[in-house]
Amino acid sequence: MSVSVYYRSIESMHPAQAFEVRDAADRFTTEFDWLTCDSPRFEQEKDGYLSGNVMPVFDCQNETEESADRLGGLYDAIEVLRQLSQLHGVDWEIWHDYEPQGIGKIINGAANLQLTEEIDSVVQIGNLFGEVGFDEEELEEEQETTPQGFGVWRATIHETSADYARQEPRVLKFPGVK
Question: Which of 59, 150, 166, 176 has an alpha carbon within 20 to 30 A of 157's alpha carbon?
Fold first, then answer.
């Protein structure tokens, strides 16, 4: 399972302000290793809005809100947006792949309740996948093995390419048309 979390400034801004926000974001993101999530990146759109996205990496490393080891997860990405909102007056609207109409906002440095609940849910689901040990390579290996006592059914086509070439093309015939 993968999900991208998208963010966009609520108001457009001057390119100089966008540069200051991106510079501050770069300073904030260096505090983390970003092992469990992409580092937040920002692009200014043609209409002046600042936007970007992050993608959490769901593996066996569980993320908690009080992540003391500073791995750089989804909570930390939201914290970077919160700090930018508080220090630079940039408010954010946030959504993800499964809720394109929006999961919440960060206004004046505070995340609304809907946003924190939705981020908690995304992280918890990711942690469940990590605890189960969802590993795509492991799944591929399991699919290749055959359980004992069961045969594998394979469809075979007995038609050779020469036989196929000799067949007349199939044409649909409609009633009343000659």
Answer: 150
Q: Show Cβ contacts of residue 50 under 8 Å, excluding neighbours closer than 6 positions.
A: 8, 9, 13, 18, 21, 22, 42, 43, 44, 90
Q: Is there a contact between 61 and 87 (Cβ–Cβ < 8 Å)?
A: no
Supply the DSSP string of 6-66, one letter for each residue.
EEEESS---HHHHHHHHHHHHHHHTT---SSBPPP--EE-TTS-EEEEE-B--SSS---TT
Q: Number of structural domains, the chain?
A: 1
CA distances in angstroms from 111 to 3, 39, 115, 163, listed in the order given: 20, 19, 6, 68
- Is 163 a domain residue? no
The pTM assigned to this predicted structure is 0.68
The string of pLDDT tens digits covering residues 100-115 is: 889 999 999 999 999 9
- Is the predicted pLDDT of residue 29 greater than 80, yes or no? yes
Q: Please give the residue range of the domain that contains residue 60.
A: 5-135
> 94, 74, 90: which is closest to 6 by C-alpha?
94
| 145 part of a folded domain | no
Residue with tokens 């919160």: 82
Say if 121 falls within a structural domain: yes
